[in-house]
Amino acid sequence: MVVLPYTVAFLLLSFLQTVKITNSQSFIGINYGQVADNLPPPSSTAKLLQSTSIQKVRLNGSDTAIIKALAKTGIGIVIGTANGDIPGLASDPNFAKSWINTNVLPFYPASNIILITVGNGVMTSNDQNLMNRLLPAMQNVQNALNDASLGGKIKVSTVHSMGVLKQSEPPSSGSFDPSYGDLMKALLEFSRANGSPFAINPYPYFAYRSDTRPETLAFCLFQPNVGRMDGNTKIKYMNMFDAQVDAVYSALNSMGFKNVEIVVAETGWPFKGDDNDVGPSIENAKAYNGNLIAHLRSMVGTPLMPGKSVDTYLFALYDEDLKPGPGSERSFGLFKTDLTMVYDFGLSTSSQTQSLAKAAQPSPSPAPAVTATNTITSNNGSNTSTSTGTGTGTGTSTSSSTNNISISSGSGSNKVYLIRIFNLGFLYGFMRLSLICLFFYNLQT
After folding, report:
1. Catalytic residue among 47, 236, 266, 286
2. Is 323 a catalytic residue?
3. 356 alpha-carbon distance from chain centroid
4. CA angle, 216 then 220 then 226, to 5°
């Protein structure tokens, strides 16, 4: 059988594009919280991030030192306005312009700001004043970006806890709380009109805390389990993360907004906690974050959104020692403040990280720590607000061979190297086959 040169070329280009997309990992981000008094200087953090596969960073505020430090790194930056700024942003367009002039224009495009989140957890705050002013605030920020010719280049959104869902089990029946009806619809219309994402905080950790059976833990950690059947779609879910994200997709679909992009603004697992905390441990945190990263890299997607990975921001870069609440709230960090890993989660090159940590230690006079004084949103929505979803997304669901995925715990970095070696070997083999096909075609013509 003769293979036409154009067909071979097309297949080769398609394969190269697939490999490029798989290896870019632009869908993996991390939260850089600052409710702490012991953080390393932003310049050290910027170097640390460049030694990883992390492509995006989400700030709860708009710390200028961090934004400057990330300039020319290519790392996408999400910045946010404080909840307390929402009334002013809503009532005064000039305040919104001033905010953009202060926090965006001096740094963009050298600092790759990609998204502005207006508030965090506003919809579930029960603060009617904030809720009523959220959309006008977002509109004024969007208008200020448009006036600066940045509309479409930088998106505007807000971040929700899973508490905005009234129902999430099974995932296909996901729906928003009807008490948010008109406001949620208006926010989604804004997102659709401006190409902005719907940002949500799914935490399987909090679902496990409300159902501590061993099979639930395995389901939450992407470990081998019997799965949960969605009786409506006959899809078997093999992990809680997919179930939660698909519940959000179903809720968007039920309101006619299935094409609005979902972004996971936060998700993570604490590695330690108080004596009465259920679930925190090094083993569980490593299993969740490592297996989540492997799941995202697989590009399998979720059963209702197959073939792509949603942008996902891990929580968090460092521990935040000043956060209130149980000890687990202060123990989500993937890196210690000396720039070494808390555990190997599969995103960092060991030699690079070790050299960074070694270089950071000898400094005779420590750089001033970055504190939480710079327009940071109260990071309550990052963790505690998500617990309102008691098992949000715990679908009970039959097998779809293309959607089922079960990832065992273990070191993610070795898996990635093997995948890359396989990709390269396959690529070279494919190229040789293409050349052979072209050779025989030329002989026959």
Report:
1. 266
2. yes
3. 25
4. 55
